[in-house]
Specification:
Number of helices: 5
Number of strands: 10
Order of helices and strands: HHHEHEEEEEEEEEH
Shape: globular
Distance between the termini: 64 Å
Radius of gyration: 21 Å
Strand content: 15-25%
Helix content: 10-25%
Oligomer: single chain
Number of domains: 1
Structural class: alpha+beta
Largest sheet: 10 strands, antiparallel
């Protein structure tokens, strides 16, 4: 491993990520634009003469902590059609409107206990991405039509929604009779950006990659979830064995790490940013390609014929972070779950006049 890469002055620190959250986005972008992390309309910022460092096993070295925050929307605005890029001026204007709108919503909607303002959110990418959507296929940059009769369950940061167990969405709930009525991230089962595939979200958009000759560990900060990826694509699990995050097997395709995942247990939704599907028939292909000292291109394709009429492909640039990944103690610090259910019982007793 080339230690000079980790000590380079253009690496991004966690403190710089925090700066983004405090609405100094323009200053950060100006700094980055003068360095090596400028994203242009070519989507990637690869260096044609870049030589990927190698591990002691001769594999491309993609180890380290990477940040996958993004200001690029998952889906493209329908009015843009197949237009793939904004102008720099449009991008700046969109970003300003997004931050202003978020602050307005935060002030009006999150005045109660536990609300976050924009300081705590990662509202922009580390870098400068002019794309109009993270989705690159279908060509319109949007989630494809849903298969007729596909399962749907919609949650969110609002009042509880009508529904039945199992709850497959990540945030929100259907009731407060027990933990099983709450979303998967509230139960510390699946992080709201951890996937797989992992997708940019409110915060903790960090992942650590650890390599060995026969395995790769992909550890997301959210829920401190670690996927053990055997570099053994020929030996799949029996179809009867089903897992929350599926069964991941990997291999090297030239300088790209390819991770194929299936055997999902059907208790999660098919795509993290949509309310559709139950993941049972989903297969996922992720591709990790290091394109310069500070950037890995992360691309994934979802194929779920029970949910979507076409595949979905998205690309999320990941930027190297000069810092460590610490444990996100979700269950250990999840006082909210017990207090939420306890508060509901107290309210029921109050309504019955029970002291």
């Amino acid at each position: 491993m080339n230690c000079s890469i980790f000590n380079a002055p253009h690496l991004i620190s966690f403190e710089q990520i925090k700066i983004q959250r405090s609405n100094t986005v323009k200053k950060l972008i100006s700094t980055l634009a003068s360095g090596t992390l400028l994203l242009t309309s070519s989507i990637v910022f690869a260096q044609t003469d870049y030589q990927i460092p190698r591990t002691e096993y001769g594999q491309p070295d993609i180890q380290g902590v990477w940040n996958f925050a993004s200001h690029t929307p998952v889906q493209r605005n329908e009015a843009l059609g197949n237009r793939a890029f904004f102008t720099p001026e449009e991008n700046e204007s969109n970003r300003d409107r997004s931050v202003t709108a978020f602050e307005a919503r935060a002030e009006s909607h999150f005045d109660g206990v536990g609300g976050y303002n924009s300081f705590w959110y990662e509202r922009a990418a580390i870098g400068y991405d002019l794309r109009t959507s993270l989705i690159t296929y279908p060509e319109n940059g949007r989630i494809p039509p849903i298969v007729e009769g596909a399962y749907m369950q919609r949650g969110g940061l609002s009042e509880d929604v009508p529904g039945e167990r199992p709850v497959r969405f990540l945030v929100g709930g259907i009731a407060k009779d027990g933990p099983e009525d709450r979303g998967l991230s509230e139960r510390c089962i699946a992080g709201f950006n951890a996937g797989p595939p992992f997708m940019p979200s409110s915060y903790n958009n960090n992942v650590q990659i650890i390599q060995h000759r026969d395995h790769v560990v992909i550890m997301t900060e959210m829920i401190h979830d670690a996927r053990m990826v055997a570099l053994d694509p020929e030996h799949d699990l029996n179809d009867d064995i089903r897992l929350w995050s599926g069964d991941s097997r990997g291999y090297w395709d030239g300088d790209t790490l390819v991770v194929e995942t299936k055997n999902f247990n059907g208790s999660t939704q098919s795509f993290i940013n949509s309310p559709y599907g139950d993941s049972y028939d989903k297969s996922l292909v992720e591709r990790f390609t290091r394109v310069n000292p500070t950037t890995v291109e992360y691309e994934f394709t979802i194929d779920d014929p029970s949910t979507f009429t076409d595949k979905i492909t998205a690309m999320v640039p990941m930027t190297k972070v000069d810092g460590l990944l610490y444990e996100y103690s979700c269950h250990e610090g999840n006082y909210g779950m017990g207090n939420m259910i306890r508060g509901e019982r107290r309210q029921e007793m109050d309504e019955l006049g029970i002291n």
